[in-house]
Amino acid sequence: MNYRQISTSKVGRALLLFCLSMLFVTRLLSQSSTDSAFNSRPYIYQLGIEGRPGYIFRINPFLKGENMDGQPIKLLYSTHLKYSFQFQPTSYVNKIYRGVYQGIGLSHYNFGNSVEIGNPIALYLFQGATIAQFSPRLSLNYEWNFGLSAGWKPYDKESNPNNGMIGSKLNAYMNANFYLKQRLSTKFDLIAGGTLTHFSNGNTRFPNAGLNAVDAKVGLVYNLNGNDRKLSSLLSHTPLLINKFPKHISTDVVLFGSWRNKGLLFNDTPLASPDTYHVFGFNVNPMYNMNYNLRFGLSLDGVYDSSANVYTEDYIVSAGGANPGYTFYKPSIEKQLALGISARGEYVMPYFTVGLGIGTNVLHGGEDFKGLYQILALKIEVTRSSFIHIGYNLKDFKEPNYLMLGIGYRFGNRYPCFYR
Q1: Handedness of CA 111, 117, 120, 125 (dihedral sign)
Q2: Of residues 412, 407, 381, the one with CA closest to residue 31
Q3: Stated pTM of the model
């Protein structure tokens, strides 16, 4: 394992924020809406079940065969139960956001090695929409899943020494999938497609090689109020006058914090610091809102990272003396501060916004802040202009930096909203 500049936040902190997100989605499922052009019930509620057989990318010795069975671990299977809501086909939201739906999912994974890996369970949020409508009954769709998984059998020097892949019982779960949906009746839809899956603990514990897989998925969706969908579909060709989007500039201000571990390479030896370090930061992000789905702009990014430029020194052990081990030293505070500028783009949907950024630190105090940084962020709407921010910062497209767990507020927001 290479611990060079490996660092992260505690996934446990993410769990609290994720639970708040779950509570928020539950509130959404039960709230009322004023956006229903023809129906008294604004949502179509759905139950889904999916099977996902998959192939694991073998990127570490444990998966390649250095395990208890002495065989490559290359196949997985997961079962998913999902509850979601979709806006009526006659609604403004459905027209603007192409059949968007969102909800909560629960899945069970089997990797064929329950003794050394476990059979984890994942709880996640998901959202999807239509990419292309080929006919009234057949469409191409996308969906993302984001959540947490538990029940892993992590590495242990004594009881589980072969598993150099996963070091914690709790891991993040991320998935992106594309699939075809065939309407079978007013009540049932058949879905089939492919997915990409990633599990990781964010380097909160070593080892953290992570697990990546490509899956096929086949499933059935049951529409709880299918008769409403039938009536709404008959009326869906009725024109809706959608207002022209008011192009404008808004500014997001985000405050975030996290905790992280630190590792570095010293004299060609990977060393992990036993300490936990704090990270605090802010983003001031003016964005040009181009249409209902896209906004882009620049961001001023400030960060205090107490692990930045941490270093260690060699030591001498006297004959017969005790080994004191390596000590990690913090530099002066100016070497732990940075101010950067990043280009940002965001994909906007009801309740959720997914953002990407790439930037560089223009003012900083040392080697750890050099190069490029990348940001992947999910913003979860709380009120019209406030949101929960869950993000991840990466260095030079490969080195994990830290989680960005925080809150934000949007100033100058003129975004039309039909679904509240």
Answers
A1: negative
A2: 381
A3: 0.83
Compute the distance between CA of residue 353 and CA of residue 345 in angstroms, rounded to an integer. Answer: 10
Asked if 299 contacts 359 with a C-beta cutoff of 8 angstroms, the reply is yes
d(CA 276, CA 97): 43
Query: What residues contact 169, with CB distance under 8 A and at least 6 apart?
Result: 150, 151, 152, 153, 154
Nearest to 282 by CA among 305, 311, 312: 305
Which of 413, 409, 339 is CA-nearest to residue 379?
409
> How many whole angstroms from its chain centre is CA 103?
15
b/e map of 94-114 (b: 16 or more CB within 10 Å)?
bbbbbbbbbbbbebebebebe
pLDDT in tens, 59-113: 889 999 999 999 999 999 999 999 999 988 888 888 899 999 999 999 999 999 9
Quick one: tokens of 352? 């959720």
Is 166's pLDDT higher than 60?
yes
Q: What is the pLDDT of residues 367-411, one digit of tens each?
A: 889 999 999 999 999 999 999 999 889 889 888 788 899 999 999
User: How many Å apart are CA 147 and CA 167, to the nearest integer?
Assistant: 18
Q: How far apart are CA 162 and CA 204, in angstroms?
A: 19
Residue 116, number of CB atoms within 10 A of its CB = 21
Question: Contact 348/292 with Cβ under 8 angstroms?
Answer: yes
